[in-house]
Amino acid sequence: xxxxxxxxxxxxxxxxxxxxxxxxxxxxxxxxxxxxxxxxxxxxxxxxxxxxxxxxxxxxxxxxxxxxxxxxxxxxxxxxxxxxxxxxxxxxxxxxxxxxxxxxxxxxxxxxxxxxxxxxxxxxxxxxxxxxxxxxxxxxxxxxxxxxxxxxxxxxxxxxxxxxxxxxxxxxxxxxxxxxxxxxxxxxxxxxxxxxxxxxxxxxxxxxxxxxxxxxxxxxxxxxxxxxxxxxxxxxxxxxxxxxxxxxxxxxxxxxxxxxxxxxxxxxxxxxxxxxxxxxxxxxxxxxxxxxxxxxxxxxxxxxxxxxxxxxxxxxxxxxxxxxxxxxxxxxxxxxxxxxxxxxxxxxxxxxxxxxxxxxxxxxxxxxxxxxxxxxxxxxxxxxxxxxxxxxxxxxxxxxxxxxxxxxxxxxxxxxxxxxxxxxxxxxxxx
Length: 431
Prior knowledge:
Blueprint: E1 3-8, H1 13-16, E2 24-28, E3 31-32, H2 36-43, E4 47-54, E5 57-64, E6 73-75, H3 113-119, E7 122-123, H4 130-138, E8 144-147, H5 153-160, H6 167-176, E9 181-187, H7 194-205, E10 211-218, H8 236-256, E11 262-264, H9 266-272, H10 294-308, E12 317-324, H11 328-337, E13 343-350, H12 367-374, E14 382-386, H13 401-408, E15 412-415, H14 419-430
Parallel strand pairs: 7-8, 8-9, 9-10, 10-11, 12-13, 12-14, 14-15
Antiparallel strand pairs: 1-2, 1-6, 2-3, 2-4, 4-5
C-alpha cells in the first residue's frame, strides 16, 4: 500500500515527470511507504528511485534533486495504510460513552502514534511495538503526546482495560532516542489519585526533560457510560485538594528542573472556585489544546477586547453567544463588564441533553440542544457559536450552522472563543 496522489502542483517535479492524480507512490529507494511521514523522510535525499503505480502498471523514476526540494504532490490521506485503532477499553473511554446516531467518524477509536506526531493527538502507546519505537527514534517523531494515567503497570492495565507494554520502559527507550513527550493523566477519583497519582508524577518527573509537560485533567462521564466500575465525582473540595498538590509539585519542580512541569486543567479551577494562574505560570501553554490555560487566555483576551471597544457603535447591536455550563459564569462576567453604550451581549448556557448534564464543556454541546433551548428566545441581531463546538461546520450531531439559522431565524456565525476576536467581529458587524 502506498500513497494515492490527490493533486499535482503546477511547475513542480511531479508535473514535469507526468505524474497525475490517482497515481500511487509505492516506494522510495526501496522503502515501502505507510504514511506521509515515510514519504517526507525518504524524500529528504538528493538521489531518489521512486516506484509509482498507475492502474496495473508499475513505473520507476530516478530523480536527482536538492535534498529539501519537495516533489510537488498532495495525497488523499496522510495515513496510507489506515488509522491504527485502539484495542483498549478504558474505564472512561468517551467513544464507548457516545449515544447512537452520531456521525460515524466519532465512533472510530484511534490510538495512532503517527497522528500524535502529526496532529498532537494523545495516544496510550499500548499498541506500539519495539519496532515502532525504533521508527519513532529513527525518524525523529518528536514531540509525542502520551496518555499515561498511571505508571504502575497493573493499575494502568486496569484503567486501559487491556494488557499493555510497560509505559516506563517505553518512555526510557524514547529517552535514549531523545524524543520529547507531553503527557496527560486523566484523573479518576478513587482509582488513580492519592498515592497512585503521587507515584505517577514522581515517575514522570524523574524522566524530565524527555517528559516536557504533565497535564492532570478530570475524567469526563456521560449519561451513556456502560462500564460498571464506579468513578467518584469531582466536587469543589476534591478539586481544591488536587490544586494544592499541583502547587506543591510546581514549587519543587521549578527549583529542581527550572520548570513547573505539571499543570491542572482549567476545570479544576472552575470547580474549586479559584482564580487561574497568570499567563507566565503556564510557560508557553504547552497543553493549551488539553484545556490547560484556556481560561487564562480568555481573560487576557478580554483585557485586549476592552481596549479596542469604542464608547459606542455606529448602530445599536444586540447579539447572543452560547457556551457550555462550566464556562457560563466566566463568559457572563465578561459580557456584563463591557462598557459600550449601544451594544449588548446575551449569554446562553446550554445544558447538554445529548451526553447528559454532567458534561458541561462547550466543545460537546449539540446543535439540537442549541435550537431547542434557544427557541422562543430573543437572541437579537445575531447568534455566535464557539468554533470548538463544531467539526467541519457541524455540531457532533451533524446539525449545521445553516440548520440553526433556519430554526431560529437569525444569522448564526462560528467564532473563535476569544473575547478579542468576538469584539472585533462585532465592531465590523455594526459598521
